[in-house]
Design goal:
This protein has helices at 46-56, 71-82, 87-101, 109-115, 131-140, 155-168, 182-192, 231-235, 261-270, 272-278, 388-395, 411-419, 429-448, 467-470, and strands at residues 37-42, 61-67, 104-106, 121-124, 144-147, 172-174, 199-206, 285-290, 307-313, 329-334, 356-362, 365-370, 377-380, 452-453. By secondary structure, the chain is α/β, with parallel strands linked by helices. The protein has an eight-stranded mixed β-sheet, with helices on one face. A six-stranded parallel β-sheet has the order 3-2-1-4-5-6, with helices on both faces. The longest helix has 20 residues, at 429-448. Residues 216-274 form the Gfo/Idh/MocA-like oxidoreductase bacterial type C-terminal domain. This is Gfo/Idh/MocA family oxidoreductase.
Length: 482
């Protein structure tokens, strides 16, 4: 009997219809280590090609189908790897070329999911506005899902994906690879152990989008879509509108309706570690200050070039050594080239990495790390202080989190091994959706134009029609239930 017949979701929309977990029918989609995991790739160029290359080099994975609106871009992604001077990249490029050559191809992921009944799992690496639609459709069919960050376009979609993953029993992974990194996991262990003392403030920042994609600029004048690009299909759930140059293939991150800007792109690699280490709940208050919207506040075309977001969390998880282990935490995010203040206790010559990083501010000292949790190091609590005691205390902290084989580079393989039941999953939707919601509440506050207050259940309590901040309208035929 076809597994799809048991979980034909109405897409876990608000009514959340009953879905029979696949383990009831023989193992929640379990694939024995001796068998190949059969994968479909939705968004097979760009980041999807990177994810697929990490899978294609494995003997226990078979890429059976691709869905992408621009197969020319997909071919370019393969050719770029084959032309690399790096032998490892070349090897992955050859594996990717061979895997893609043997795969069925579709322009519309919905057709792929409907027709390819032999799939075990899918990778979702489309622009942000399509993530939830593809992931919900796949989970409703009982398929394991690896979905790129940001997990969804809206807060409501994050909650739907979390609930759908729990109901279906499939193995899910968000594509924030730093979560699998050794350095990042050590940061979490050290902070949780109380080496810094109570942490009540966190600073995080990124240089994006400067030099990466356009933000803070008016929408370009409409033009015909590039040859071979089915623009109506690319639009997906968005309202009908003309193509504008710069959106495809990468600039969409900065265009309202398609991406969620710098916070959505890089927050998953930076906000991740404070949320994880401090066990932060939903924030009680969020404020985003920013430069002008591209097109102006009444005609938001692209996201502001630079933003500062403040979250106030009413409590943190227990922090070892804290007199008030559950006290309030404030976290601040900077992007667009803005940087946090240099800590007063920093030694002469210290500068924050302009590319991105995080600073945990504890009573006993500070911990600084770069993007993805890399290169963690200490700063003293007072200027002229010594970090040797912090370093000794950190060295004595035992390893409490499992390490992922392959470090950050093993994030996709970890998903495969979790499907096979041989390794715990690194960043499932249960956690990834919570992290994503915190990030997207920063976007909601940006859209509100004022600080928002959030109750423990997740409702925004100080903005009329607050549901509009957390959700969006879907074009006919593109809702979460079709």
């Amino acid at each position: 009997m076809n597994r799809r017949d048991f979980a034909r979701t109405a897409a876990f929309a608000a009514a959340a219809p009953l879905v029979v977990p696949r383990h009831v029918l023989g193992g929640a989609g379990h694939v024995a280590p001796s068998d190949a995991v059969v994968v479909g790739v939705i968004g097979a160029g760009g980041m999807g090609a990177s994810n697929a290359a990490a899978l294609a080099v494995r003997d226990d994975v078979r890429i059976a189908a691709l869905a992408d609106v621009d197969m020319g871009r997909v071919a370019e992604a393969v050719e770029g790897r084959l032309a690399s001077d790096d032998p490892g990249v070349q090897r992955a490029g050859r594996a990717l070329r061979d895997a893609y050559a043997g795969a069925a191809t579709y322009a519309d992921f919905r057709e792929m999911l409907e027709r390819e009944s032999g799939l075990d799992a899918v990778v979702v690496a489309t622009p942000d506005h399509m993530h939830a639609l593809a992931a919900l459709d796949a989970m409703g069919r009982g398929l394991h899902v690896y979905c790129q960050k940001p997990l969804t376009y809206t807060v409501e979609e994050s909650r739907l994906l979390r609930d759908a993953a729990a109901a279906s029993g499939v193995i899910t992974q968000m594509g924030n690879q730093g979560h699998s990194g050794d350095d990042g996991r050590r940061v979490v262990e050290v902070v949780r152990a109380g080496v810094l003392g109570p942490v009540r403030e966190v600073l995080s920042w990124t240089n994006r989008p400067n030099g990466w994609w356009p933000q803070g600029v008016p929408l370009p004048a409409p033009e015909p879509a590039p040859p071979g690009l089915p623009w109506d299909l690319y639009l997906g759930p968005n309202e009908e509108q003309p193509y504008r140059p710069g959106i495809h293939p990468f600039g969409w991150r900065g265009f309202v309706g398609f991406g969620v800007g710098s916070l959505g792109d890089m927050g998953a690699h930076l906000v991740d570690f404070p949320v994880w280490a401090l066990d932060l709940p939903r924030p009680a208050r969020v404020e985003t200050r920013h430069t002008p919207w591209g097109g102006g506040a009444d005609d938001k075309g692209t996201y502001p070039l630079a933003t500062i977001t403040d979250w106030t969390f009413p409590t943190a998880g227990p922090q070892a050594g804290a007199a008030d282990p559950g006290g309030e935490v404030r976290m601040t995010w900077y992007d667009g080239g803005l940087l946090p203040p240099t800590p007063e206790s920093a030694p002469d010559g210290f500068t924050v990495d302009p590319n991105g990083g995080v600073i945990f501010v504890g009573e006993r000292g500070l911990l600084v790390h770069e993007t993805y949790g890399r290169n963690p190091r200490f700063l003293p609590a007072q200027r002229g202080g010594d970090t040797s005691a912090l370093e000794a205390a950190a060295a004595a902290v035992p390893q409490t989190l499992p390490r992922v084989e392959g470090d950050m580079g093993g994030h996709e393989a970890n998903w495969v091994r979790a499907i096979q039941g041989t390794e715990p999953i690194s960043c499932p939707f249960d956690y990834g959706a919570h992290l994503n919601e915190i990030m997207l509440l920063g976007i909601a506050a940006m859209n509100a134009g004022k600080p928002i207050t959030v109750d423990p259940g997740g409702a925004v309590t100080n903005v009329p029609d607050s549901d509009a901040l957390l959700s969006r309208r879907y074009r006919a035929g593109w809702g979460l239930n079709g």
